[in-house]
Amino acid sequence: MPAPERVPPGPVTTAPAEPAPAGSVTALLTEGELTVRGRIPEASNAVLHCTVAGQGRTAACVYKPVAGEQPLWDFPDGTLAQREVAAYEVCAALGWELIPPTVLREGPYGPGMVQLWIEQAEEEPGEPAAPAADEDAPGPVPVGPLLALADAERPAPEGWRAIGPAEVPGGSTALLVHADDPRLRRLAVLDAVINNSDRKGGHLLTTADGRLHGIDHGVTFHTEDKLRTLLWGWAGEPLPEESVAALGRLAAALGEDAPLTTRLAALITPAEVTALRDRVAALLASGTHPVPGGEWPAIPWPPV
């Protein structure tokens, strides 16, 4: 995650946190004392870098107060924090640890989303350059974790999946590609399930121990098809067996009186829960990765 800048302390919290299992990471995030250390300057909404401490434990985390959310034309005001928590709940029900532990709680600037901080292994990429187009050209040029630029005049190199053309400095065009990676493929399935309308390259975080995390899930769970992502490399292809099994677990967990459904009911609307069930059922019925619908931009801007 980007380095934060300093911000002044806010007012004292006035409401208790929701209960969570004792000793767990979510318990620490929910019940610990939250201290603001800085602000992530690149974010469009208020994103604060914090520490949370309790019972002899301390962890770095991100706090996104509802009061710092910018209004959107297609999502109700003040709901992005809840959607981030709902995305974490659904990811956990799939059995995948792709989204860092995320909770909804009071903080120094009022209620908001608090998420475990993920330390990125890779350095921030520099200014991208177009790859050479001759026979002796090197491989794809990295532009972020699991993303690269390749020769636009050739098919995606082995081990990579094509996203689409990308303009690079100098007025030339390269092929933007993502890795043909099973971790990334799970994330593509998750995005289809939660109807993620903003999967950018900067939302992919890899750690030194080889784990992949996706962050920034505030614009999700819309009842209309708004899937907008970089991860179209498997569009139309059969879902892996492990993804089908995970979707089956999620479908079972979304029963009318199931605990997951009860938790989601406090975070998103009944119509959005129904649409979530419908998307899971459609994925299981088709057995394939979705393809762009054509009524909504398929790739977010900026993509990386």
From TrEMBL:
<feature type="region of interest" description="Disordered">
    <location>
        <begin position="1"/>
        <end position="21"/>
    </location>
</feature>
<feature type="compositionally biased region" description="Low complexity">
    <location>
        <begin position="12"/>
        <end position="21"/>
    </location>
</feature>
<protein>
    <submittedName>
        <fullName>SCO1664 family protein</fullName>
    </submittedName>
</protein>
<feature type="compositionally biased region" description="Pro residues">
    <location>
        <begin position="1"/>
        <end position="11"/>
    </location>
</feature>
<dbReference type="InterPro" id="IPR022292">
    <property type="entry name" value="CHP03843"/>
</dbReference>
